[in-house]
Amino acid sequence: LRMPDHPPTAEIVSVGTELLLGQIADTNAQEIGKLLAELGFRHVHRQTVGDKLEHIVEALQLALNRADVVLTIGGLGPTEDDLTREAIAGAAGERLEVDPSIVAHLRKVLAERNIPWVDSQSRQALRPKSATPIPNPNGTAPGLICPKGKKSIVALPGPRAEFLPMLRGPVRDHLLALSGGETIVSRTLRIVGVGESIVEERVRELIGGTNPTVAPYAHPGEVHLRISARARSKASALKLIAPVESRIRELMADAIYGIDDESLESVLLDLLRVRKQTLAVAESCTGGLLGGRITNVPGSSDVFLGGVISYANSVKVAQLGVPAETLRLHGAVSRECALEMARGTRELVNADWALSVTGVAGPGGGSDEKPVGLVYLGCSGPGFEEIEERRFGGSRESIRIRSVVAALALLRKGLLSVG
Ligand code: ATP
Ligand code: MG
Fold it and tell me: Model's pTM, two decimal places?
């Protein structure tokens, strides 16, 4: 048996009209995707196809032409629209045969569940002549591993409780044997306060690399740099990643706030917790989104005290003590108002640090002087006070999300600057 060229290529074919109609999300393909990445497969295409025999056969043929291993999801049950077995036989050019071991399994499971035997059940005992069934301890239809020359088709059932154990057990072993034992490990460096193109410019020397690879991904208000290395073990992959990570840290300096799945707000809460300091907010155009994002982090209550959603000017004046004069002279969307809001909520709530947001989220309400997207962020803390003016593009939703991230980034700047 010749090993496929390394790294081997894998392709998923998800079967089900309900996927195409958007009635369910393809969470099973997501699980396979993660496993393929972990095992170091090349994975460049994925297909979704409805419950129609000729379409499934076509999808499998296309996948077999370009991949070493094809994984199907769903369509293994007893009903008329479960056609994956027939399609695999068609694509592999094989006949379906009854597998007595599967018949025995079906009879046992149905008896246990007190389900009478009906003829359609026996469809699940069919398999292409050269296929090996994958036992399904959690359901009726077994999975299948069907060789096709040097390649193979692996069929998995759709229901999650049957799919996951099969994927993580026997299918993982099958893939591991094909993969030549390589693994891909990724580490994500999370950056705030620097735009995507500037990040790319600064780390350009690393972006052409092949092992590890370095790739930037833009998120609202943030950029994530993913470093991925391929090696025979996780430890050796991490060894490849380490020098590249150090170099990126030199190039990006303070802009990196966290790694992997650490969020900006959770990192800030940790910084404040260590200093035994507290936080308050005053929100106008974000209407509570900032506080919402902070309180989404479990345990935020030791640090976050609360604040004011001062959407109307009357609330800015009455609750936060913004002088009516400030509003009259400069308007609610102004440097001056943002400063008064931050100071006001800090005092009202008696917090060490306070953030404020005021801006024009649109789509209406903009003017030449104060266009949609103009936002002022304020931060007031011990030994730090700063107002930032930003001009965001995009939809109302995007302006509001970017405002939240910019406010958090300003707090980070304050915390770093006072040590
Ligand atoms: P059954 O024996 O239940 O018919 P099956 O292998 O034929 O199983 P399908 O009929 O294709 O699988 O799907 C059964 C159920 O499994 C779906 O209704 C859905 O809830 C879930 N499912 C199917 N495919 C997926 C998928 N790609 N991701 C997540 N869930 C899925
Ligand atoms: Mg089915």
Answer: 0.70
